[in-house]
Structure formats: C-alpha cells, structure tokens
Amino acid sequence: MLMASREGASKLVSSMMLVSRSFSTATARGILAKEAVPAKAVGFNGDVVRRNIGEFWVRGSVFGLRHGSTASYSGKDQQQEEVKHSQPVAEGGDKAEEKNAIVSYWGVPPSRVTKEDGTEWKWNCFRPWETYSADLSINLTKHHAPVTFLDKMAYWTVKSLRWPTDLFFQRRYGCRAMMLETVAAVPGMVGGMLLHCKSLRRFEHSGGWIKALLEEAENERMHLMTFMEVANPKWYERALVITVQGVFFNAYFLGYLISPKFAHRMVGYLEEEAIHSYTEFLKELDKGNIKNVPAPAIAIDYWRLPPNSTLRDVVEVVRADEAHHRDVNHFASDIHYQGRELKEAPAPIGYH
After folding, report:
1. Which residue(s) pair with 40 in the sheet?
2. Which of 8, 137, 222, 300 is the most buried (most CB within 10 A)?
3. Phi, psi for residue 97 in degrees, rounded to 5
4. Alpha-carbon torsion (169, 278, 133, 220), positive or negative
5. Which residues pair with 99 in a beta bridge?
6. Which residues make Cβ contacts (< 8 Å) with residue 168, sequence separation at least 6?
7. 174 near 231, Cβ under 8 Å?
8. Is the overall model pTM greater than 0.85, yes or no?
9. Membrane topology for this entry (predicted)?
10. What is the biggest distance separating any 2 CA atoms in the chain, rounded to whole angstroms?
11. Beta strand pairing call for 86-89 and 97-100
C-alpha cells in the first residue's frame, strides 16, 4: 500500500508539472492554489468573458487557456479590458435610448446603417432597402364574385366575422385598425411556413411564394407598428388579441392544410373588408370626427412619405397595401383552382 501511495504521489507531481508546462507558471499557480479572483472582463482573442481565473481552467480549452493566462496578459490587453457599457442603441421608437452594451462571447457586431444624407438610421425593425412608395393607383373596387361552394363558404365566413367586429369597435377606427392588424399578419406567416416545410420535404423550389407570403406578413406587422403610435389599446383589448390570435392561427393552419384554395380565397375576402374599413376610416377623418394628427415617424420612413404627411396619408398607403394583398391571395387561390401549384407561377415578390 505504501508503494502504491508513492506511485500515486509521483503521478500527481507529474501531472502538476504537465499542467505547469501546458499553460504557464502564473496560471498554474493560480489554478492549483484555487485563489478567489474578483470577476472582471478578460479578453480571449478579442472576445470578452466575465469569469474568474478558476472558472477559466474548468471551462476553457487548452488553447484558450494558453492565450488567456496571466503571463500572456500584456499591458495592451489590460487597456482593452474595460468595456463601454453605455452606448446609444437605435430601437423601433422615435428616439434612441441609452442602454448597456450586451457582452457576449460570440460578439456579433451590430450593423450601423445610415440614410442617404448620412444621418443615422434609427429603426431596427426594418432597413432603408425595405422601404417603398405605395402604389395609390391600384383599383380599390375590384371584387371576386363567389361562384363555387368553397368561394361562398369563404365569403360568408368573412362576412360573419365582420358583424361582431363592428359591434365591438363601433366607430373607433384607429383602435380597430391596430387590433385587426394583429390578425391580418397571421395568414402570410402560416402560409409561408407551410410552403417552407413542403419545400424541404419534397426537395423542390417554391417559385418564390415563401418569400412573397412572408413579405405580406411583415408588411401587415408594420401596419401594426404604425397604428401603435396613434392608438392606445385598453387592457381587455390586449387580452382579446391573445385569444383571437390563438384561435385564428390554429384554425387557419388547419384550413390551409385541408384546402389552400379556400385559405387564400378567405384572405382575399378579408383584404376586401380591410379596404372597406380603411375607406370608412378616411371618411371619418374627412368629417373631422377623428383628428388628422401628423404621421408617425416610422410611417414616414417606411413608406417614404413627405415629412409633413398626416394620418390620412398613412391610412391611404395602408389601404393600398391591403388591395395588393387582396390581389395576391385571390391569384394564389385561382392557381389552385386550376389544378396547379403555386411554384408553377412566378411569385409577386415585392408587390405592395
């Protein structure tokens, strides 16, 4: 037993010498002594990690420890160990807020985007190359007459949903628009997701329809981001969104799986109703029943509106967007009615 213990001791000494040679004398001493070192930012190949020296030895790799040892921690590295915590971060609001910089081992650098005039772009929810000027010349009166049984079913389903909506919101069109956009952004996301999965299963292209439907969902979401600036939902309206979104998402998901032609036709009729709602919104603005306030900054940048634009201008471009979504979904339904697949027709990407 004595000889065995001596052999174990010699192995322990050998391993200690190996540790000392592998990393550095200073690091090995710190590890073996297990001294508590106050946590501070230490640079590993340009990355910043908040740990103590003991944790480095347990979690770091041999290569990382070699470069992170106290012996190789030069004066230049010590100058870089202070991290700037207060940097202006642009958000989806009207002004940039001071926030603590996020420190991460992975260190993905934030992109700095500027406008054409050189000023800083203040929106993270969309970029300058995603903005556009709305096509106000689109025909707003087009209507798809329901002929088949599925068409009539889709038409009357939408009509039946309009009655409780009118009853709940009455003439509060600003709040009505904001709440309905929380639902309008669902179909494009569901359709794009299902086409995405189908493309993966079948090892085939989608003809661009995945991107087209996701663009529609994002456009509808930007409508919501805009009307959030002009309307203030009550607590029960926020609770209603959770319920309606949960029911509608799952119902539309199942409906799209069963019959895409029905799903797209129903969205086409929903967009027709949206056009009607925004037309009534404009009438109330013209009558003076709703104050024509200045357009939110996010709307001016997203639709490239003139700086002196008003809420009426915003409602007009949103209504034009809904008319384009109407055309896209009726077109998609027609493709399915002809026994074809969406991928066989070029998708209207960028059609707003």
Report:
1. 51
2. 222
3. -110, 150
4. positive
5. 87
6. none
7. yes
8. no
9. Multi-pass membrane protein
10. 102
11. antiparallel
